[in-house]
Design goal:
Layout: H1 9-18, H2 21-28, H3 32-39, E1 43-53, E2 56-64, E3 67-76, E4 79-86, E5 95-100, H4 104-116, E6 121-129, H5 138-146, E7 153-159, H6 166-173, E8 181-188, E9 198-206, E10 209-217, H7 222-236, E11 240-245, E12 257-261, E13 264-271, E14 274-281, H8 282-293, H9 309-316, H10 321-324, H11 346-363, H12 380-389, H13 395-400, H14 417-426, H15 441-445, H16 450-495
Parallel strand pairs: 1-6, 6-7, 7-8, 8-10
Antiparallel strand pairs: 1-2, 2-3, 3-4, 4-5, 9-10, 9-11, 11-14, 12-13, 13-14
Helix pairs in contact: 2-3, 3-16, 5-6, 12-14
Length: 496
């Protein structure tokens, strides 16, 4: 039976394309060649989340509709508790592990960086939950921790209450050429409904990229939002103020309208999907109208027919966070100054979210397959090594006043691939990794091109084959010639 190491790289690539996310991570770190194969096989992650508040970190990686990996880290007594789940918000299904005291913020960022910063991984959106009242200097800590590594991501998003310096740090942690937009998003509570039907957003620019401030509601009042439309336009100074309404029209009313008012112009569109309007200064119309006119459906992810299926599912589940993730539901604008006097809407919305979540769970098909990530059992010796691997001083190092690794306490940067994988094993992110003998610490840190490495491997095999053929020719030729000479001489003797 052919072993994995004997399979050609081209075949391995096809296998890698079929693997789930965590299996790719594990395979990537079994040998140097396998790592190069994984890195040469592109993977798309539609969305990821990172949150930090009150000493707790959250990492969520979405791989599809109703498919996600969730990791929550929080302090507990003299240590921390790590909770992991897959495709479920049910606390009874969470896998938990208690560990020695580790900085929850650094560990959360370390997991995010280790799993997602890779040139083979393209991410649709990274959503950051960093409340404005977060610890001072949190943005600077993120930049310092991630640098110089950068995400390959199309959109950076934050919640409505995130720190105002959010957009300024985007350029420091992403590959700027890949970034298409920046967004600040919030959901306004509405009693009696959990289905988003209206989007209002202001569009400005930040370093040449569109920067959206997006508000989502589950109801629509033409008079109220007409006032909000004008207010945001004249006070937020957007390049374009947009609103999108999921309210289908009759075919007879499907037409384009252009309205002028003083120095502004509003371009109105309608279809069976809904209506959408864009208000802008006249001086900006020429550079925007081609993009606006090209929209087949301007209702964005409100429209199930034209929206990306994942985006439609994800955004329609925002209200359910009230029931699914009570500690991480800041996307709902509870406490916003715009909602003063409307507190009576929150309780009905929470109740409706809980009822909707119960109905959703009734329709969930029980998955009996093995989880793609879980906790492994650690012996006492392994538990004692965890603080050192995570950049913390061991008891022995505290006595000597130094660190064997030469790193400051809590610093997880600078670890080589072997240490990184050991750390991820300890916290249960990946299964045990059996390192191939061909790998060394030096190899693990190389930044070689995957295609060149694989090509080099193939050329090495061909070179070895050529050497074998040459050896065979030199060794066997005299034997064959002798045999032929003997056969011919015997044949002549027989004939005579």
């Amino acid at each position: 039976m052919v072993s994995w190491s004997q399979i050609p790289p081209e075949i391995k690539r096809h296998v890698v394309q079929k693997l789930d996310f965590m299996s790719r991570i594990s395979l990537k770190n079994t040998s140097h060649l396998d790592r190069q194969i994984v890195e040469s096989t592109k993977l798309y992650i539609p969305r990821a989340r990172f949150g930090y508040k009150d000493g707790k970190s959250l990492v969520v990686i979405y791989t599809g509709i109703e498919k996600f990996l969730r990791l929550e880290i929080e302090k507990c007594g003299n240590g921390v508790v790590i909770q992991k789940s897959e495709n479920s918000y049910n606390h009874s299904e969470f896998a938990r592990k208690f560990m020695p005291s580790i900085d929850t913020f650094s560990l959360g960022l370390f997991v995010l960086k280790s799993l997602l910063i890779d040139k083979s991984i393209n991410i649709g959106v990274i959503e950051w939950d960093l409340p404005e009242e977060s610890e001072e200097g949190i943005i600077e800590r993120i930049v310092m921790f991630l640098s110089p590594a950068r995400f390959h991501v199309k959109e950076m998003a934050c919640l409505w209450n995130s720190t105002e310096s959010f957009q300024s740090f985007c350029s420091q942690i992403v590959v700027w050429e890949h970034l298409k937009s920046i967004r600040r998003i919030g959901v306004f509570p509405t009693a009696g409904s959990l289905k988003p039907i209206f989007i209002h957003e202001d569009e400005t620019e930040f370093k040449g990229r569109p920067y959206y401030k997006t508000s989502i509601t589950m109801s629509y009042s033409a008079e109220l939002f007409g006032v909000a439309f004008d207010f945001s336009f004249y006070h937020q100074n957007p390049i374009c103020a947009n609103y999108r309404l999921k309210d289908g029209t009759t075919p007879e009313s499907e037409q384009f309208q252009r309205k002028e008012e003083d120095d502004t112009v509003t371009r109105c569109y309608a279809s069976e999907c809904g209506t959408w309007e864009h208000k802008m200064l006249k001086e900006n119309e020429d550079r925007l109208k081609q993009r606006l006119d090209s929209q087949k459906c301007g209702t964005s992810w409100l429209c199930e027919m034209h929206a990306d299926p994942f985006d439609y599912w994800y955004h329609h589940n925002f209200p359910l966070r009230l029931a699914q993730e009570p500690g991480w539901n800041a996307v709902i604008c509870i406490g916003s100054e715009f909602m003063l006097g409307l507190d009576h809407l929150f309780d009905p919305m929470i109740k409706a979210a809980e009822e909707a979540e119960e109905k959703r769970l009734e329709n969930v098909i029980l998955d009996t397959s093995t989880s793609s990530w879980g906790f492994r059992r650690l012996d006492e010796g392994e538990v004692q090594r965890i603080p050192h691997v995570m950049g913390h001083k061991s008891d022995e190092e505290k006595k000597t006043g130094g660190s064997k690794a030469g790193k400051p306490k809590g610093d997880l940067n600078g670890l080589n691939m072997r240490d990184i994988m050991k750390c991820l094993e300890e916290v249960g992110i990946v299964e045990d990794v059996q390192w191939n003998s061909e790998d060394s610490d030096e190899n693990s840190g190389d930044e070689e091109d995957p295609e060149e490495t694989i090509a080099h491997s193939e050329s090495s095999k061909q070179s070895l084959l050529q050497k074998f053929q040459l050896f065979s020719f030199i060794f066997l030729t005299p034997i064959i010639v002798s045999f032929v000479f003997y056969f011919v001489s015997q044949l002549i003797s027989f004939c005579l």
